[in-house]
Amino acid sequence: MAGCWLLLALIAAVHAQNNRSSLVLLWRRGPAVLTAASLMVTRDERFRLVDGYNLQITDVGPQDAGDYVCQISDRISRDQVHTVEVLVPPSVRASPESRHAAARRGGAAVLECRASGNPVPSVTWHKMIDSYNTHLNESNLRLADGPQLQLSRLERAHSGRYACTVDNGVGPPMVTEFQLQVLYPPEITVERSWVHTGEGFRAELLCTVLADPPAEVSWYQNSFPLSASERVTMSARGNNHTLLIANVQPEDFGNYSCVADNSLGRARQHVEVSGRPGPARFTSPPVARRPDAYTLAFAVDSYPPLDELRLLYRQLAFNESYQQPGRWHDVVIPAPQPAGALTHRVAHELRGLQPGAVYEAIVQAKNRYGWNEVSDIFQFHTLGGEHTAHAGELTPMFSGQIKTCYNIYTVVSLAFLTLWNLVHTG
């Protein structure tokens, strides 16, 4: 083995029993004579004769591999060939030599491990995965075999550590790690695009920024850059960037922007800070307890007291012979008493409903800052009739032409609500 002190003894196959002194023993390698009788012909000090006819080689290296011939000269020359194979542990020439590669998203990268050794080593590539960032039992993912790892159409997820493992069974496997950096412009996601607060309370805006190279992040209010103050604090922890507004004042309401810049581009996401109520969240079960009545329950978040509530509901088609939804019923619900808390809970009973029918409802709420966004559509079902649905059948309940008609009516209805708001808030 290369780099080790080893003893390799080559023993002559023919031992002179009679007239030993009349025989001449030669050791040669190819045409080169190493020894003749007791004379050392080679000048390599690693070679020597042991017991007069055994050839010993110390500090064996790859260059010593090959055929060695023991030749005894008498009237007939007799040869014995000894083949020496030197086992060499693997070695690696990596490219890039720095073990670091960088490429833009959408581009390509090539990592290389040129291996040598005897026997010829195998090369295996893996993507190294941190144990806390994966549910896999393995610590890495096998990608390819061979001296090169070619990665194309790079995405952000390709960033990370890669390793080539070189092994030929001689000594321990050799592992070489690389770091691949995929460069891309900033990408921003916001925790909430609409933040509800009130005067004297606080507002927290959070945006998550991913970028390589790392991005510079700044905050804007209504297109004007923000600076830190006694009430405004900006902080960053990893990829998360937070804008905290304490003791909110009327001038703090408005549109905010989280802006991220690096050498490859810019990204922007908007967040609205508003005192308007949050969207209504329905809390009642989807199946009524009676055939002709239903108690609709919902919750609305609002720091100031609620001033007004609007409920719109209508009957839906529930078979193919009745394809058009009914007309909207517009109900004004008295505002609940101030709850002394953020969440206001409301329950309203709808009467005169059709048995065994499916209905849908939407809700809006108003406080001193204005109307909130229309709630998501909520569906419920009354008992009785020929068509009794279960909760799991309510959504989605349409297909084909019926669903198309339903969508058209919903769009028209929401457009009507928007116009109604403009008229009543103007």
UniProtKB/TrEMBL annotation:
Keywords: Immunoglobulin domain, Repeat, Signal. One of its GO terms (cellular component) is axon. Transmembrane segments: none annotated. It comes from the Eukaryota. Residues 90-181, 186-274 form the Ig-like domain. GO terms for molecular function: axon guidance receptor activity. InterPro entries: Cell_Adh-Cytoskel_Orgn (IPR050958), FN3_dom (IPR003961), FN3_sf (IPR036116), Ig-like_dom (IPR007110), Ig-like_dom_sf (IPR036179), Ig-like_fold (IPR013783), Ig_I-set (IPR013098), Ig_sub (IPR003599). Residues 1-16 form the signal peptide. The keyword rRNA-binding does not apply. CDD domains: FN3, Ig. The keyword Iron does not apply. One of its GO terms (biological process) is homophilic cell adhesion via plasma membrane adhesion molecules. This is Lachesin. It comes from Papilio machaon.
